[in-house]
Specification:
Layout lengths: L6 H12 L18 H17 L9 H5 L2 H10 L13 H22 L12 H4 L1 E4 L2 E4 H9 L53 H16 L1 E3 L4 E4 L1 H5 L18 H7 L6 H10 L4 E4 L9
Parallel strand pairs: 4-5
Antiparallel strand pairs: 1-2, 3-4
Helix pairs in contact: 2-4, 5-7
Length: 295
């Protein structure tokens, strides 16, 4: 006799599916790629996607055009070769940063199209855990790439513990240190994200500086009369990456490390002077995050 499955059993089954599915089906590969060249080919296609479907001013993505394009179908065929990619070929910090930043941003676009997102990625519960590629024989979700690899296995800001457990073989691929500039380069599919861009290993530090400068000079607001500064919500969520303590995430704690971390990226001399003078006493607020789809 078959007994009806309980709610908890169905939820557990759903979690298993979330942690198993990937978007890149290796059976779609039409030819074997020489190991190492798949990364270069992916970057080439990603650059073409950036040119053809992403507004260079606003950073908004034309998902409708991309969904129907031959270019996107070619990109998806290339992702089918990622399971055979040897991750240990990413030898330097610069190579790792560029590869994983580009893959994250492309994965989010792929996931939005695959799951038919229309208004916001929040339409799909667990979106950042569900969207994933098989890379080098391992499943990497968007959360795995961001919190496990790029944030040096720091873990999700609202979930205790590291992203990769002690015995998780993916731990060895994580960067050694978190670079807060990645938060101005990762694009999660929301309008409050920075514009979509892609990165080169040989120019990564210049490009990350540029991304941080562009985002901060648009986002930071100073009201000298009220002695107040308003920042992107990203700086609150990831306060520890900017050198502040974890209490800032809950609205408490010393926020001055956030201000000191970003001051050198501000182009306005008066803004930098204000921060340097009042970092320890000024009120710091965080803007609401607009999760509307960036398309």
């Amino acid at each position: 006799m078959n007994h009806p499955r309980t709610l908890w059993q169905r939820l557990f089954d759903a979690l298993l599916r979330i942690n198993a599915d990937v978007l890149n089906d290796s059976s779609a590969a039409i030819a074997q790629t020489v190991n190492g060249t798949v990364a270069a080919q992916l970057k080439k296609h990603i650059r073409r996607i950036e040119t053809e479907a992403i507004d260079p001013i606003t950073g908004l993505v034309d998902y409708t055009r991309l969904r129907a394009s031959t270019l996107f179908r070619e990109y998806r065929i290339l992702t089918a070769q990622l399971p055979a990619f040897a991750l240990d070929r990413l030898a330097t910090r610069e190579e790792k940063l560029a590869f994983w930043l580009n893959l994250y941003n492309a994965l989010i676009i792929d996931g939005i199209i695959h799951f038919g997102i229309r208004e916001t990625v929040r339409e799909d519960a667990g979106f950042f855990r569900r969207v994933a590629y098989n890379v080098g024989g391992f499943r990497f979700s968007a959360d795995d790439i961001e919190h496990g690899i790029l944030r040096a296995n720091a873990g999700h800001p609202v979930i205790p513990g590291p992203q990769f457990g002690k015995h998780d073989p993916r731990r060895c691929f994580a960067l050694e240190h978190t670079d807060f500039r990645i938060h101005f380069a990762l694009v999660c599919g929301a309008k409050s994200c920075p514009p979509v861009s892609f990165y080169d290993a040989d120019r990564i530090d210049f490009q990350l500086d540029l991304a941080a400068r562009n985002s901060l000079n648009q986002e930071v607001e100073i009201d000298p009369d009220r002695q107040m500064i308003r920042l992107s919500r990203l700086l609150q969520w990831y306060s520890s990456d900017f050198g502040a303590d974890a209490w800032v995430k809950s609205g408490l704690g010393d926020k001055s490390p956030l201000l000191r971390a970003i001051s050198s990226y501000l182009l306005d001399d008066s803004m930098r002077t204000f921060i340097e003078t009042y970092a320890g006493t000024v009120k710091v607020g965080f803007k609401a995050y607009d999760w509307t789809l960036n398309g």
